[in-house]
Design a protein that fits this description.
The protein has 260 residues and is α+β, with helices and mostly antiparallel strands. Helix content is 28%, strand content 24%. Strand 4 and strand 5 form a beta hairpin. Helix 1 packs antiparallel against helix 2 and helix 3 (124-143) packs antiparallel against helix 4. Bound molecules: magnesium ion (2 copies).
Length: 260
């Protein structure tokens, strides 16, 4: 199903996007060496509840996962890249952490993810990989305008990742979003321009480039959820929810300048 939002729903989507941005940035700012992944999950739960919103994750039970997710945020560390199940792990200096959160407020969902290095260690190759996903995300957003096709976005994202030397996994990627977190159309992180669904004003998309340093192959952790690189290499992930407007793409989950 593809949803096209009207002005009332779009106004709600903007509020949800701002909330997701604020929560994600707050969690990032609070995370330090020694922070436990379960602390981050508890902080997320408290902020979602305080805002009168609801988590898209707690009861999420797709066919590929093991039962309901049961947590409020995905915490993926180092070789983990997607669907990282929060567990009893205290972060070390230099860990690469990806946080991914999706929330529903007033019936509209928004979804965003960020990767960063914990602490003071410098990890140039990890930073370059994180920046590649951010650059790819900006390229996808720049390509998102009325009349463009999903393949144009996929091509823009994939070109940046491949030019930076990464292999692209197209099994998991971006997606439509609206009254629920995951909707059509799927937005693979590589593809051919001019192909696929034609974008219209009112469409919400979550774009989410992610890469692994030296492979495109994933393995599922024994927890039944966390997806890791098959080689044990580090990984990175960047995601924003955008709205297609007459003028192009509006980023709904961009943090406010005073939150950075
Ligand atoms: Mg997400
Ligand atoms: Mg998503």
């Amino acid at each position: 199903m593809i949803e096209i939002l009207g002005p009332t729903e779009l106004a709600r989507a903007r509020r949800t996007g701002k909330l997701v941005a604020r929560i994600l940035q707050t969690l990032r700012n609070r995370t330090v060496v020694g922070t436990n992944l379960l602390d981050i999950d508890r902080w997320a739960a408290a902020m979602i509840e305080e805002a009168g919103a609801s988590s898209c994750y707690v009861d999420y039970a797709p066919s590929f996962g093991r039962g309901p997710f049961g947590h409020y945020i995905c915490t993926s560390v180092n070789d983990a890249v997607l669907h990282g199940l929060p567990h009893d792990y205290s972060l070390s200096d230099g860990d690469l952490l990806s946080l991914d959160i999706a929330i529903t407020l007033d019936g509209v969902a928004a979804d965003s993810a960020v990767s960063f290095i914990v602490g003071e260690s410098s990890h140039p190759s990890s930073v370059a990989m994180i920046e590649a996903t951010q650059t790819a995300l900006r390229a996808g957003i720049a390509a998102a305008k009325p009349g463009a096709r999903i393949g144009d976005l996929s091509y823009a994202i994939g070109s940046v990742l491949e030019d930076a030397g990464y292999q692209v996994n197209t099994q998991y990627g971006g997606h439509g979003i609206g009254s629920t977190m995951h909707q059509d159309p799927h937005v693979p992180n590589a593809g051919r321009p001019g192909r696929g669904y034609k974008l219209r004003p009112g469409l919400l998309l979550a774009l989410e480039p992610w890469v692994m340093a030296d492979t495109a192959e994933l393995v599922t952790d024994g927890d039944g959820w966390t997806l890791r690189s098959a080689t044990g290499c580090r990984t990175a992930h960047s995601e924003h929810t955008i709205a297609i407007t007459e003028d192009g793409a509006e980023i709904l989950t961009a943090p406010a300048p005073d939150q950075l």
